[in-house]
Amino acid sequence: MDKTDIRLNNKNNRIKNFLNKNINSIIFLLLLTVIVTVVTYYRILVQIHIGPVSDTVDFFTNALVFAGQGIGYSDLTRPPFFSFITSLFIRMGYTSINTIFYVDGGLFIFGVIGLFMLLKVKFNDLESFLGGLLYATFPILLTILAVGFSDISSVSFSIWAIYFMVLAVKKDSRFFYLAFPFAMFAFLTRYNNALLIFPIFLYILINKDKVNFKNIILGIVASILVIIPVLIFFNEKFGNIIYTFMNFESTSTVVSGSIESAVYNPNIFFYIQMFPRFVGPQGITIMLIILLGTFLYLVLYFIRNNRDNKKLFEEMRLNKYKLILFFVLGIIFLASFGKIVYMISEILFFIFVYIFYEITKINKFKNLELHLMFFTWFMAFFIFSSVFVIKDNRYFLLMAPPVIYFMILGLHEISNAFNLRIKDRNVIFPVLAIMLTVIIVLSTATQIPNILQANNDKVTTNEQIELASQWFVSYDPNYKNQNIYSDLWPNFSWYLKTNVKPVPIFKNNQTIKDGGVTNNTFNQADSNQYNNYLLTNNADYYLCVRPGLNLTSYNPIKKFGIITIYKKI
């Protein structure tokens, strides 16, 4: 047998050993992937029927620009990476706007796989499978899935960034070469993912004795190499390499789905109050279980480790200054939450958690650093989203992975606490998993058709926009040389394949650019503001969705449902 055959045999043996060792994980991952793929496929079909919303068009027209097939309209202030990935498929000939729905769905599946792998760091195959399934079927996630927004894909990249970071600490520091670039992908997909620096830095700081800082630096360098082409592009387009990073609101403010969207909302408890609606019946069930599970986890740990607890309290006595600082910071954080700049709250909480670790590490809580990292991950986005006055239901998605972690942790602990065994096997968690899977299947089977029903108005609006666009092209074949304005400028830009300019909302002597107006009645003073805006900008046509406007300088020439086409007199 020559050397080539020996190497081949060794390789085959390694593959067989890997498969034998990980066969259960492979089976659960394949099952999870198949289920999630089926759910995603049907959600995509629903979205194709609904059609695109304005944000979808913005991301897709940006992708056309990146693919060298721009139509004259784009919004390059949006994070570029989601559109860049979509542009790769456009270059392969998939130029339908449906492409972005499939890309969104594909990146979602990629994220679910990553979450399974991340949960496997702490939990067994069944627990990780259930965690992935829970995440994939959260009502808020199904609402946003395949709409063509960047939210879900940014979470997917965040999951993989955290996973590679944990591997870099626990297995091999060279995984930092992937962790930091994936964190950069998450940032370039949604800018407020810059907050990932808090859980990443905390985990590295806690495990500073286990990591190779040279590999951390090389990982950071790799992430810088990722962003350099983006900075060059922004400099060419805007003359400022950080222009689009200066406003988180540019990541989009419109939402589609059966759950209402909020725009301006200073309520710092919004995401707590809405939590049951975000996670659905399966999440509500686990909420009840997790409270008991977490309580038992702490109580049983202290009971089982009384000797170490005495050591812990002795350590606390010796570290009384840290303990005082811990409580002072906690009080300052709670008292100032929502009243100061969010970044100060982020830093206060980061220090608070790290001091907690320093006080309790002597007791060697198992997986304490992992728990604190996930908690910091959740709080980083909870603090930002709660303090930020522009709120949207889908911002909860950024908190979803750590929520899943603690849900599974609660189920895991309560399962171990009761420890009901049949043939030397604890059956509590499998029973809970079966019960929750039934709830998940029923909830998902109900919600996807409901999403279509809840969006019937968008189906009708897209049909009317398409009909209006077809008529308009025939009415004025020279329309691409005209100055066209619209309230739904991204949608009309796509259907007309030209640059349609925006018209803000004028109401009660105010100019509103970000939507959020629920009362669509306009008086003559409002109409005069619309009229003056169009005249000032020398608009030739106004493709309007505002009912009841009386424009003195523009005549209505055609109407399609809610769409009225005005032409300058």
Structural summary, described in words:
- The chain has 569 residues and is mainly alpha-helical.
- It has a domain at 457-568.
- The chain is 66% helix and 6% strand.
- The protein is built from 21 helices and nine strands.
- It has helices at residues 3-50, 54-66, 81-91, 98-120, 125-136, 139-144, 151-170, 176-189, 197-206, 213-238, 270-273, 275-304, 306-318, 320-336, 342-360, 368-387, 400-418, 428-454, 456-475, 489-496, 524-536, and strands spanning 421-422, 425-426, 484-486, 501-502, 505-507, 510-512, 541-544, 554-560, 563-568.
- The strands form three sheets. A five-stranded mixed beta sheet has the order 4-3-7-9-8. Strands 1-2 form a two-stranded antiparallel ribbon. A two-stranded antiparallel ribbon has the order 5-6.
- A hairpin with a 2-residue loop joins strand 8 and strand 9 (563-568).
- Helix 1 packs across helix 4 and helix 16 (368-387) crosses helix 17 (400-418).
- The longest helix has 48 residues, at 3-50.
- It is globular.
Layout of helices and strands:
Layout: H1 3-50, H2 54-66, H3 81-91, H4 98-120, H5 125-136, H6 139-144, H7 151-170, H8 176-189, H9 197-206, H10 213-238, H11 270-273, H12 275-304, H13 306-318, H14 320-336, H15 342-360, H16 368-387, H17 400-418, E1 421-422, E2 425-426, H18 428-454, H19 456-475, E3 484-486, H20 489-496, E4 501-502, E5 505-507, E6 510-512, H21 524-536, E7 541-544, E8 554-560, E9 563-568
Parallel strand pairs: 3-4, 3-7
Antiparallel strand pairs: 1-2, 5-6, 7-9, 8-9
